[in-house]
Each structure stands twice: as C-alpha cells, then as structure tokens.
Write a structure and sequence with these properties.
Elements (H helix, E strand, L loop, with lengths): L1 H30 L5 H8 L5 H10 L6 H13 L5 E2 L4 E2 H35 L5 H14 L3 H15 L17 H38 L3 H8 L4 H13 L1 H24 L5 H10 L3 H29 L1 H9 L1
Antiparallel strand pairs: 1-2
Helix pairs in contact: 1-13, 1-14, 5-6, 5-8, 5-11, 6-8, 7-8, 7-11, 8-10, 8-11, 9-10, 11-12, 11-13, 12-13, 13-14
Length: about 325
Amino acid sequence: MKRAVTLLKRRAVSAIPVLLIVLIFTFLLLENASGDAVDAYLVSIGGGDAGLRDVLREQYGLNGSVLARFWLYASSVLRLDLGWSLAFDRPVLGLILERLPNTLLLMGSATAFAFILGTGLGIVAGARPGGLTDRVLSTLSLALYATPGFWLGLVLAIVFAVQLKWLPTSGIETIASGKQGFARALDIARHLVLPVASLGLIYLALFLRVMRTAMAAVWPLDFVLFAQSKGLSKRRIVLRHVARNAALPLVTVLGLQAATMLGGSVVIESVFAIPGFGRLAQEAVSGRDTPLLMGIILTSAVFVILVNLAVDIVYAVLDPRIGSGERQA
C-alpha cells in the first residue's frame, strides 16, 4: 500500500505540467481557429453591423491581446471557474457537471460490460491456443473490432428499437415519466442497453484479443510446465496460473482505452440522443463556443489523468516491481 501511495504522489506531481501543456496548446489552437461565438451568434440572427460585433466582442472580452486573455482564463481555472458559455448563456462548470454524470454512467457500464465479457471470452480462447474455439472467437473479435461504432449503433437501434420495439430508441430516460427509485433506475437501464452494447462491443473484442494473446505467451513459461508436471487440473492451471499472470496487460489496456472510449461516446451519444458530455462537445463546436470547448477539453484531460492514476495504483498493487523501481529511481 505504501508503494501505491508513493507512486500516486509522483504521478500527481507529473500531472501538473501535463495539464498546463493541455491548457496552453488548447488555448492557442482555438485562438488560431477561424470564427468565434460572436460570429456564430450573428449568423444565427441573420447578420449584424460592425458596431454590434464590436460591442459583443468587448462584452465577452475578445478584444484583448492573446496573452491577456490567456492569463485571465488561466487565473480563472485556478479558481475552478471555467468561464461562461456563450451558446448556453450559463457557467461552463455547471453545464459540465450536469452532462458529465450521463457520460460516466454510459462509459462505466460499457467498460464493465466489455472488460468482464471480453476477459471471460479471452480466457476461453486462450485456454487452448490454436484450437477451434480460439480461431472462431479470434475471427469474430477481429470482425467486431473492425466494425464502426456508429454503424453498429444504428443497426442495433433499427433491429431492437424500430422493428422489434423491445427497447427505446433514444434518450437517457423517459421524459416526464414521473418515475422514482427502482422504477426510474430500471427505465434508465432500458435506455442504456443499446448505447452500452454499441460502445462496449468494440472494446470487448479488444480485451478478448489482448487476453488471448497474453495467455498464449504465458503457456510456454516454466512455472506453467511445472504446474502441469504436478498433475494439476487443466481448469486450475488456466484460471490460477495462466489467466492470472496474463491479466496484467489488460489493466494497462483499460487505462489506455479511457480516452478512446471518451471520444467514442461523442458518436454514440449523438446516435442515441443522450444528453451527455460528448454531445455537449459537439454542440460547443457547432456553436463555436470557445470557453465551453476549452472547459470540455480540460475536463477530459483531468479525467484521463485520473483514470491512468487509478491504473498505476492497481498495477503497483498487482506487480511489486512497479513500486520498487520507482523508489530505486
């Protein structure tokens, strides 16, 4: 546990310059983009004269120098003030806190579904590398991993929502249903079935292939041959020796896929009209809402850093070499 705490402190300190780099590059990138929220607003109302444009730019603080505006934004971020959304006319932090739970629920459910089922199928495939079961599961996983997430979501929606009418087509819950407690939780679960399946099946294939490959690499090792020579059952060797040692790469992949899954939720939330973090990013881009988009990118960076911190801690607990290497360095 002490090794995990030491590793956490080191990673937390190294996360500060990462966030600073993200903040600087995001600000400069959006500064060099053509157009801003004022231009988008004038287009939405059918245009306006130069006087109105100057008044709006002055009101939103867009007339200052780049350095002055960056310093103003950076000092606000230090106070946990992410600015004011020009498109929604609301604080950015409030919008993010309102939408983020829906995305975390979607991502958490999809991750758990993909990790548990993908690991289980990977163990089945890796129990006999090169066998018929391994070949069938590897082929299906490759085909599934090559399938675009948005296409899979549309197909599932057409089949199970439109044709069979088993599940709702969109949203996170039934609007104005008045449901509370368990009834509301069940309603949200029904709405999440298709989005979770669309997002999770792609990563299920990845976890399956990683687990199968890791197990195939463990089988020839000496300790597995020793366990076989002792006459242990095939089931015990697979679960307690091969799969257990092959599970470490899955933890690494789980952390690496956090950012990818967060980006994938943008598409899935748009397909199923889920009011989440990804859809908020799409609305910020379409509205040229620079403060909101910067808040979304910064929050995404913090989320990815936290996930990787958690993965590092789990890895340090599972592998004693991680902590000892940090101390020796």
